[in-house]
Amino acid sequence: MSKVFTTCLPPHDGHLGMEIQWAADCSDAFYQGVKLAQTWLDCSRSGWLWAAMIAERDLLPRAIERRAFEVGFLSRIHQRLRSNQDSTQPEIRCTSGDYIVQRKAEPVLEACCHG
């Protein structure tokens, strides 16, 4: 990646946060996904989780924005699901796309993923 745009998922529910570096600026879409997930978790939205995600995601024009939305949304859900588990266990590395994931508290752990 030549130019890098960074988004940050803050720690939540006792689970570590992370930074994600993108090949394009899609921070608005990422944070929109995080916010929608939090709204759903707070029971402010009724309905199925998958339906809420798909309905909002499909409003985004570019594929990388839709991917950023999904990553933000699912990362926030992941934090809640893992809130009662040890958040210091090692991450699995993957290689497949246009973003890099790095956990905030463990900068040596990095995953490269392509979409």
From TrEMBL:
LasR-specific antiactivator QslA domain location: 11-81
Database matches in InterPro entries: QslA
Name this protein carries in UniProt: LasR-specific antiactivator QslA domain-containing protein
Organism: Phytopseudomonas flavescens
